[in-house]
Design goal:
The chain is 79% helix and 0% strand. By secondary structure, it is mainly alpha-helical. It has one domain (2-291). The longest helix has 61 residues, at 176-236. The two termini are 26 Å apart.
Length: 294
């Protein structure tokens, strides 16, 4: 109700309208920075940058427009929640959303979360928590230990998921960047907010996994026709069985070397953005649910 009341004020209307150009400007700047940052940021510690990283990495004409609209909506939702005396919090959370979106793009494109992004996010969230406590708002954490607990739970949960991946697949299920990312996020979300964020991220990741399976199923059906054609071509070529076995062996080794990797970073980032944008709604809904058992 408070958010709706603020939306009916002149200040509220001005801010909501301003969020649209601000969203476009922030994404435009972030895309420029994403292309200007050192290529080594997007590589593993023992890797050299590829030709793709040395060129233009992202184009604003494509995904930038979509992300600008998403950012504008996120800023509007944040402003509706953090409006009275929370200008600094609103600004800091807006910056954190931009960093989270950059993490999403980086992990989707290059399957890596730059440590620089994670550190920047941790610094912003730590500043938000300190400011929140000093001003006496106590929006995110009412006790000093909650941010520490949030960081421990966030990083610990990712370590646990990684351990399960090692047990089941005999290889790491996700990169250590996910562990560091959720530890940084836990500073803001605290306890029990980190638990809510984990559940949101898992739900989104599950939906993304289902969509991926469906797309792969459709793609495999298309490739089956191409495979039939390749078999007919092989029958016409003079390739002996030994050569075929060597080729198949090389392909198998390449596939096995890829291992099992879940790009969980984008889902963590999206889950965190959802938690921030619907902070009051999520916490009120959980409180109402828990009250049923009292």
């Amino acid at each position: 109700m408070e958010a709706l009341a603020y939306l009916g004020t002149t200040n509220g209307i001005i801010w909501i309208i301003a969020c649209l150009p601000i969203g476009f400007l922030l994404i435009f700047i972030s895309y420029l920075l994403f292309n200007k940052f050192p290529a080594k940021w997007y590589c593993d510690y023992d890797e050299e940058p590829s030709a793709e990283l040395l060129g233009k990495r992202v184009s604003f004409k494509g995904s930038g427009i979509i992300l600008s609209i998403i950012t504008a909506i996120c800023l509007m939702l944040c402003r509706l929640q953090f409006n009275k005396g929370y200008d600094i919090l609103f600004t800091a959370l807006g910056i954190s959303i931009i960093i989270l979106l950059m993490i999403t793009v980086s992990d989707f494109k290059y399957t890596i979360i730059p440590d620089q992004f994670t550190v920047a996010l941790a610094v912003v969230f730590l500043a938000v928590v300190i400011y929140d406590r000093l001003r006496g708002y106590n929006i995110f954490s009412s006790e000093w230990w909650q941010p520490i607990a949030g960081a421990a739970i966030g990083g610990g949960a990712m370590l646990l998921i990684n351990a399960i991946g090692v047990i089941i697949y005999k290889k790491e299920g996700m990169g250590f960047g996910d562990v560091k990312l959720f530890a940084a996020i836990g500073i803001l979300t605290g306890f029990p907010g980190t638990i809510y964020t984990i559940f949101i991220s898992i739900i989104i990741a599950s939906l993304g996994f289902i969509v991926t399976i469906i797309v792969q199923k459709i793609t495999s059906n298309k490739n089956s026709d191409e495979t039939t054609l390749e078999e007919e071509i092989d029958e016409d070529n003079d390739i002996d069985d030994a050569d075929k076995e060597n080729i198949e062996s090389d392909v198998t080794e390449v596939e096995e070397s890829k291992g099992f990797y879940l790009a969980f970073g984008p889902y963590i980032a999206i889950g965190t953005i959802i938690y921030i944008c619907f902070f009051n709604l999520i916490n009120n809904a959980v409180s109402m649910y828990l009250a049923l058992f009292k």
